[in-house]
Each structure stands twice: as structure tokens, then as C-alpha cells.
Design a protein that fits this description.
Elements lengths: L1 H9 L2 H4 L25 E10 L2 E15 L5 E12 L10 E5 L8 H8 L2 E4 L12 E4 L9 E6 L7 E2 L11 H18 L7 E6 L2 H16 L5 E5 L11 H18 L10 H22 L5 H15 L3 H6 L6 H7 L6 E3 L7 E3 L12 H19 L39 H10 L4 E7 L7 H9 L11 E6 L9 H17 L3
Length: about 500
């Protein structure tokens, strides 16, 4: 049982943003701090930014809203940061996008300061970002020119806290989280008159299964349809990591992409995408068949597969023989550059770090996380309390991992209750079937070892959708990792694709 749960955590896109995100060690705070006197508190400031050559005046609202349950009881102070463009007189023509990260247990700081917000932190992409002072600049790739933005912090993160009779476990679970974030969205559109605005959801990592649940919850319980969904580094079905052979198959193309990046491919082809088409075909056919045979695989067949795997992964045949053709992500991260005494990142394999123990089998650290997290945290805190003028007595939790009693309930009402692996494919299928106009845009990083792109493709190929709506799903790929937007070229493409998606359905 323990082993199975550990395997499942491999897919967590944000035990993940330990994803650079989740393992950040911030000071813990009690469940209720000085802000939690059951009173909402907001800081409203005015700003200007130039995006695509156009000057935009906007209002930033940072604070909390009282979240009420079905009985009208106050159960949480729910934290958010909203950016709204000034001068928009007809809100029916102005989209609003609700965005959040994953974890579960991460605040929205990463998307906020990395991709979406009007200010972003500048990091040394794929390398160590030096110690402060850090550089924060206007984000010319913010989505604020095409949509208002609401950065959402689930309970336990940001300024969000349980109040009244509520406690953390009322929010810390698959269904509890879907429900509370959905209730916040409902209350927000009511309070700020956005019921008739085009609405979008953008979730990253664990935020993607959350989104699948929310879009279905809003339709089924509130009669609220969203216009579109953007899934960044998606992982809807956590069962993939609980099955060893399928897990190996879906990770292989990512191994190949990383080996390609580090010039570990013999006779390296010129084009990455053409190469990956070849690897996908091999992984889904010959490699999958070889693993399926198990102990029935002959020695000659094993030698043949070892040769092909070596050519695709950059690992030597002797290592693949000892691994019995099956290499876990943490083993791959430790082994690929072992001779150079370096390990590669989980969330973005372009990041490298020193191996502290050359004899270790598995990589225990994530260079991406350790190299960019200080810049993100310091820059955000300075911006939050400085530019946004939030009261400094209010404690912003980057994550919930140091909150007393934090643990996650993985049961999902729409899954087999015997299963320990959450799967919100059923939620997304139901939402898309009930609303055939619903469009999905999926962003994938080629060098992401937390939510591999071939696993995402497998998941969406097995939604069981009616053929009439299969084309409602669009996949986009980036030469970066889980947080593809830390790469300047990918950030630009992120903005272009997201903006085109939103504009196409908001006319």
C-alpha cells in the first residue's frame, strides 16, 4: 500500500512545485492569524502597464473574501489577487480568467510572478539565479490585455484561512477543494458583477485535475458554464503512475527529449519533434509489447530492446540491463549526467545540480526548485507588501505544507472508492459532453519529468469522448519544463497561444 502511494506521488504535479514551488520552506503560521477575525480585508491600488505597445490602466485588488457554505455560514477567508482593466463599460465583452497553481497545497504565486500577472521575476533560465537583489519588471506577456485576471489561493495558502467552525480538513481533499474553489468563483462573479462575462479557468499541475472538477461542478451545481479551460502541465489520471509498465511507456519520450537536449543521442537528428514522433511510436508499440511480456521476454529480445533504449535515452546498455529495461524518473535524473557529477531537474530537466552522493541510485533534490525558488518567493513578497500595499501583519503562505494538520484526502466521489488514485477524467468528459462548446487548451513541456507529455496525450486519448467533440482539445508543446514560462521564448509562446484561445471564444 505504501509503495503504491509513493508511486502515485510521482505524478503529483506539485508535490510538484516542490515545483520549485512546493518545497519552499516558508515560516509556518497558525491556521488563524491576525487577519482571521472573520472580516474581509482588501488593498486596492491603481497601476499602468504597456503590453504589445498599448498602455493599459488597471486596478489591483489584493485581499480576502468571506466564503460561505450552503447554509450561509462563514467558513473561510478566501484570499485572491484580481487585476481588472479600467475603462471597460460592458463587462459582457470583457473576459475574466481564474488561475491557480497546484500541489495540492501551493499558492498561485508561481503563475502570478512567472507568466500571468503584470509584473514578473527575471530568473537566469536553466541556470542558478544569483542571490538578491532580484529583478522584477513589467510583464509584457501578461494576459491582462485580453482578460481580467483573478489569482486564486486555496485555503491554507496565500491569505486563505478557515474561520468559524470550519477546520483545515474541510478544505484539504479532492472534493473539498473542488467545492470550495468553485464556491469562491461563484461568489466572486456575484460580488463583482461578472456573471455575464466570458469566463476561463487556468490551472497548473494539480491545478489541472482541480480544473476538471471545477468546470463540472460549476455546470452541475451552479448552472455556470465556462467558455474555455487552459491546462498547464496536466495530470488528470493519477493511476498512470501506479502501473509500472504504463508508467515506463509514458515517460520514455520525455527521457528521449532530455537526452536529445544534452546531445546524448547517437547520430542525433536535426529536428526534435520529428525524433519524438519516432520515439512515441516505439514506446507505444514495440517497447510496450516487450514490457508486457515480462519474464517471457527472451534474451535476444531483451538485447534488442536494450540497444534501442540506449539509443533513445542516452543511458548505457549495462545500466538498462540491470534496470530490466525499466528506469524510474528519479533514477534517470541521477544517471544521465552521473559521469559529469551532475543530476538534472524533475520539473525542468534543463536545470542541473551537483550530485552530493555519486553512489546514490535516485536523485533526491530538484535543481530547478532550489535554483529559482528564492527569486520567486523574495520577489513576490516584496511586490505583495510593497506595490500592492497589503497590510504586513497578514501572513502570506507560499504553500500549506508547514500548516499544522495539513494532509490531503485523495478520495474522489466520481471514482471507484476502492481506488487510492484520483482520476478527474470523468469530470472533464461529463463537462464537455454537457457543454459541446467547451474548448480545452493543454500546454506541455518537453523536459518535464513531473507530468510527462506522452502521459498527457495518453490521458486525453482515453477520455472516451464523442467524436463530435474530440477536436475541442488542442495540445501545445514547449522546449522547456513544468513551468515552461521560465524560458523567455516559451513565455512569449505561452502568451500568444493563451491569448488567441481566449479571444477566439470571447467575441
Amino acid at each position: 500500500m505504501k509503495k503504491k502511494i509513493i508511486l502515485l506521488i510521482n505524478c503529483l504535479a506539485v508535490f510538484l512545485l516542490g515545483y520549485a514551488q512546493q518545497t519552499v520552506n516558508t515560516a509556518s503560521s497558525p491556521v488563524l492569524d491576525s487577519i482571521a477575525e472573520t472580516k474581509p480585508d482588501e488593498s486596492v491600488t491603481k497601476h499602468t502597464i504597456k503590453i504589445d505597445g498599448k498602455l493599459i490602466n488597471y486596478t489591483a485588488t489584493a485581499g480576502t473574501m468571506i466564503l460561505k457554505n450552503e447554509k450561509g455560514e462563514s467558513v473561510a477567508l478566501f484570499g485572491f489577487i484580481a487585476y481588472t482593466k479600467e475603462g471597460e463599460t460592458d463587462l459582457a465583452k470583457r473576459p475574466v480568467t481564474f488561475a491557480y497553481n497546484g500541489g495540492p497545497g501551493s499558492s498561485s504565486m508561481w503563475l502570478h510572478m512567472g507568466a500571468l500577472g503584470p509584473r514578473r521575476v527575471v530568473i537566469n533560465d536553466a541556470n542558478l539565479t544569483p542571490a538578491p537583489p532580484y529583478v522584477v519588471q513589467d510583464n509584457e506577456y501578461s494576459l491582462l490585455d485580453v482578460t481580467d485576471l483573478v489569482m486564486v489561493d486555496p485555503v491554507g495558502t496565500g491569505l486563505s484561512r478557515p474561520i468559524g467552525k470550519a477546520i483545515g480538513k474541510d478544505f484539504w481533499g479532492v472534493d473539498q477543494d473542488i467545492k470550495s474553489v468553485s464556491q469562491f468563483i461563484t461568489q466572486y462573479v456575484t460580488q463583482y458583477d461578472r456573471w455575464n462575462s466570458p469566463k476561463y479557468l487556468l490551472g497548473e499541475s494539480y491545478g489541472t485535475p482541480r480544473t476538471a472538477g471545477i468546470v463540472d461542478y460549476l455546470q452541475g451545481n451552479v448552472s455556470m458554464q465556462v467558455n474555455g479551460v487552459i491546462l498547464v502541465s496536466s495530470c488528470l489520471d493519477y493511476n498512470l503512475d501506479s502501473h509500472e509498465d504504463i508508467s515506463n511507456v509514458v515517460y520514455l519520450p520525455t527521457y528521449a527529449a532530455i537526452a536529445f537536449y544534452y546531445n546524448k543521442i547517437p547520430n542525433r537528428p536535426a529536428d526534435l519533434e520529428t525524433f519524438l514522433k519516432e520515439v512515441r511510436t516505439y514506446a507505444g508499440n514495440e517497447y510496450a509489447a516487450a514490457l508486457f511480456k515480462g519474464d517471457r521476454l527472451s534474451e535476444s529480445e531483451k538485447l534488442q530492446e536494450m540497444a534501442k533504449l540506449a539509443a533513445y535515452t542516452g543511458l548505457n546498455k549495462d545500466y538498462l540491463d540491470k534496470a530490466n529495461l525499466r528506469v524510474s524518473p528519479s533514477q534517470f535524473r541521477q544517471e544521465l549526467l552521473r559521469e559529469d557529477r551532475q543530476m538534472i531537474g524533475r520539473y525542468d530537466a534543463r536545470f542541473k545540480g551537483i550530485i552530493p552522493d555519486l553512489l546514490a541510485e535516485n536523485a533526491e533534490d530538484d535543481p530547478q526548485s532550489s535554483q529559482i525558488s528564492p527569486a520567486f518567493v523574495s520577489s513576490f513578497m516584496n511586490y505583495f507588501y510593497g506595490d500592492l500595499k497589503v497590510n504586513k501583519t497578514h501572513v502570506y503562505n507560499v504553500n500549506a505544507y508547514h500548516t499544522e494538520g495539513f494532509s490531503w484526502e485523495w478520495k474522489h466521489a466520481k471514482n471507484d472508492q476502492e481506488s487510492e488514485a484520483m482520476d478527474t477524467r470523468v469530470d472533464l468528459k461529463e463537462a464537455m459532453s454537457k457543454n459541446p462548446n467547451l474548448k480545452i487548451l493543454v500546454f506541455n513541456g518537453y523536459y518535464d519529468l513531473a507530468t510527462p507529455f506522452f502521459a498527457t496525450e495518453y490521458t486525453f486519448d482515453h477520455l472516451g469522448l464523442d467524436k463530435k467533440i474530440q477536436n475541442n482539445i488542442t495540445m501545445k508543446y514547449f522546449p522547456a519544463g513544468h513551468m515552461m514560462y521560465v524560458n523567455p521564448g516559451s513565455l512569449k509562446a505561452f502568451k500568444e497561444n493563451a491569448a488567441a484561445f481566449i479571444l477566439s471564444m470571447s467575441k
